[in-house]
User: Which sequence fits this backbone?
């Protein structure tokens, strides 16, 4: 069985371009799934990707003819 990559809060913050505190609050209020191991949070790579996909606003593009 291959384990999925997991990230620390700081790594998630860099990936999402937010502060560590923002990631921490997102974990606490359930907007971002994570696992607390002892006193440290870990977030699966797939959960970061799912968060990005769910919170990306798609721009409508006009095609000129």
Assistant:
């Amino acid at each position: 069985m291959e384990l999925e990559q997991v990230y620390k809060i700081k790594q998630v913050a860099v990936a999402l371009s937010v502060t560590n505190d923002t990631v921490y609050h997102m974990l606490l209020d359930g907007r971002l799934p994570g696992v607390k191991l002892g006193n440290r949070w870990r977030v699966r790579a797939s959960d970061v990707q799912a968060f990005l996909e769910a919170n990306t606003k798609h721009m409508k593009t006009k095609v000129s003819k």
